[in-house]
Amino acid sequence: LVRNTDLAADERVRRDYAVLSRALLAGASGQLRNRATTAGNLLQRTRCPYFYDTHQPCNKRLPGSGCAALEGFSRQHAVVGVSDACIATHPSDMAVAMRVLDAVVETVKPDGSERRIALDDFYRAPGTTPHLETVLTPGELIVAVTLPPPSGGTHIYRKVRDRASYAFALVSVAAVIQPDGTGRVALGGVAHKPWRLDTADAQIPQGAQAVYDALFAGAKPTPENQFKLILAKRTLASVLTEARA
After folding, report:
1. In the chain, what percentage of residues exceed pLDDT 70?
2. Closest Cα to residue 70, out of 49, 85, 55?
3. Residue 1's pLDDT is what?
């Protein structure tokens, strides 16, 4: 999981997995990207201010203490996949692109046994135990992340944020759209993990509204982040229009 210094490999990523390359460039700053690892990116914790403020209740930091964000400042928080115990989002850009590419996480346990975990299965829903964020067991390490063979198509990563750099997504959209109009989309900034549904992918030929309806059928926004639903719909529409142009 060390940083990749193979220029040929870098070029292959830009050519064959362009959505991933674009997501990486949209994340953090150049200095941080140069020090980052793949596993560290996937495992980074939420940027919820109540998670970091030890004077505030947070079920993710201290199970059973409550969730201050539910009645507090929630503009940056999740609108789908939430629970009464936690409405935090996962902050990664890279994970959103890896989800749309069907990445698989490879791990090794202390006893030497190995696992391959689809990225969609890697993150736990918050439920009543938001402090359990992934399916990793104690001592289990990520040793690799693999991508399937290149699928072609048009790759787009669109990140909407409060400022042009070094800011986390309010909404992001990763898309791989094929010439026949089919494809895959995953969203960041709206849930506890990269948000992608097979039912939404199936609606891509029908247009952005149908995709949006499938993705956000169970949305539970707060009054402060209700705007994310409109923002997600508009960003989806823009990405799908660009992909078909």
Report:
1. 95
2. 85
3. 38
